[in-house]
Amino acid sequence: MAPRTAPPALPDGAVTLQDPGPGLVVLDPARAALFQELDALFTGLAEQLGAPAVVGPPLLPAEGLARLDYFRNFPHLAVSAARFAEDAVEELAAGRAPAEQPVRPTGYLLPSATCYGLLLALAGQDVGAELRLTAVGRCFRNEDHYDGLRRLWGFHMREVLHVGSADGVREHLARSREFIEGLADRLGVAVSYQPANDPFYDKSGSRAKLMALDPVKYEFVAVDGTAIASVNRHRNFFGERLGIRTEGGTAHSGCTAFGVERWVHATVLAHGTPELALRRVRDVRG
């Protein structure tokens, strides 16, 4: 393997990459290289588990998300895709401000998690004994505040998805936990393992109460409280709602998720600078 060189730097003092707006960032060359190297490490889990890579869709149908109770649980996070109305297009093309409400709904939303598109693509199918897939997607969430790389409008999520039996999902998540804790240790990133506190719209709702009684999502949390990865047990929820079957009947599913920008944040936090973090990540990759 050819030795990895340092990423090219921007001209000293000539260019500053500014954040275009709240929750929006441009990664400089060092952090961009760190992003790429980290995601290459995450694909090691997919390789261990035999999960081939696919590319998920850039949009999700609102009708499909409604089948999954998305709007009952997370309406406040949804980012809708819209198009300009015809009269607004004419006004804009003429250089004039359009009338109020210049956009029209399309029936599609930007993904808030990578696995939704993959699961919707399996609707009505029999996956046999089991199916594993991995994908990295850009996800979008309408948050109440944004905070550097810890909380963004748009971010990348690498997921490794398992669809099959309940026992298969448990094994998948156990191996994922072992992988993540081992990787974090080798990267020098201290993490704790704790039940997630997902931002349900209705904290008194049935899904939120069930999560409190029987957590199905656990997060790996860095020392500053940033959740950088998670393991998620879906039970047979997606199998039932989407008609996904396995040899034993309705399929169970579970996924492992890595927030790539959040890992960039956590490794820089642990090592002081992007350059030192990149050196550690590259040492781990070998």
From TrEMBL:
Keywords: Aminoacyl-tRNA synthetase, ATP-binding, Ligase, Nucleotide-binding, Protein biosynthesis. Transmembrane segments: none annotated. InterPro entries: aa-tRNA-synt_IIb, aa-tRNA-synth_II, aa-tRNA-synth_II/BPL/LPL. It comes from the Bacteria. Gene3D superfamilies: Bira Bifunctional Protein, Domain 2. GO terms for biological process: tRNA aminoacylation for protein translation. Residues 131-286 form the Aminoacyl-transfer RNA synthetases class-II family profile domain. One of its GO terms (molecular function) is ATP binding. It holds the Pfam family tRNA-synt_2b. This is Aminoacyl-transfer RNA synthetases class-II family profile domain-containing protein.
